Amino acid sequence: MRAVAADPATGTAQWAAAQTGAGLLVAVLAAPLGAIADLSGRKRSLLALFTAIMSLATIALWFVRPVVSDVSLALSLVAVATVAYELATVFYNAMLPDVASPARLGRVSGLGWSLGYGGGLSCLLICLVFLIGRHPPPFGLDPASAEPVRAAAVLAGVWIALFGWPVLVFVPDRGERRPWGQSLRNGLADLRRVMREAAADPALLRFLLARMIYTDGLTTLFVFGGIYAAGQFGMDARGTLLLGILLNVSAGVGAVGFAMIEDRIGAKPTVLIALTSLILFGAAMLATHDETVFWALAGGLGLFIGPAQSASRSLMARMAPAADRNVHFGLFALSGRVTGFVGPGALGIVTALTNSQRAGMSVILVLLVSGALLLLAVPVRPAPVTTR
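RE: above sequence
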């Protein structure tokens, strides 16, 4: 984005606007498409469609040159890829009970999440070592035209397609297939019914509200963590990248570790343990002025990012009725996107008012604490799930 924006401030504003638009589109489409998938018996087809869109939009970033005139193309492609990713995860997450028995939901969810971290990290390292970090670049790529970076987008898009196909081949749709037109009409009617039932279900509402709040905290942490490290400890781009790698590695390790125990202690306790640990490590990171201590605390904090996300997914799988699972995961996606602007906005306001990055970052702790307190009040009941 820095290469195509007129200036950093304009680029930041344009990026925020594009991501806000993408978030609103996800909020509008996620639950209706989930309802249609429930009735059509075609969540695999919808997953394939949005995976293909995400892959193609990512590959098409090759055509974004480092010139200001290409900023609209860049923002449009990123927005399309973001929407496609979020909608694909609705159907992907809803497949969890199809591939795992109720007693193994937590383990499978955690292992899947950790493999996602591992795959993303592997792709990143390949890009760094073989494309961006090589001098001269391979294949005659021209650094002046940012072709090594553009080639990284092509690799990422191919990576998505390459590793997305196994689930499309080996995880069959369950339920009766119905015509698309009938599924659309009945799906929208079912969505209205599920929305009414959700409004009358205090446990589900509290969970979705709690997840919305603590996910805002996690999202804000991802967006501003590197900025905070650069501002407080003078980290350059390489240091910020290494911090991102550390967090991804530790998050993957944490997801694997908690996957082994979540089914024994429960999804809700796992999320609460993860959130409590994130709060404690985050507070310590804000308090320290020692860079070495900061790095050590960052590694500890990362261990609990994966479990907070993967256990939230398995908790939703346990709460969602089997017949309406996709639409419930549509609501789950909605809860993760609809207020995504709140955390960054509040952080910006507090930082501006106090002229302190540390004070601004404390907004993240407030969101995590608020979400954890709401989750405490959620009574968890087992929902009927499809077993293999």
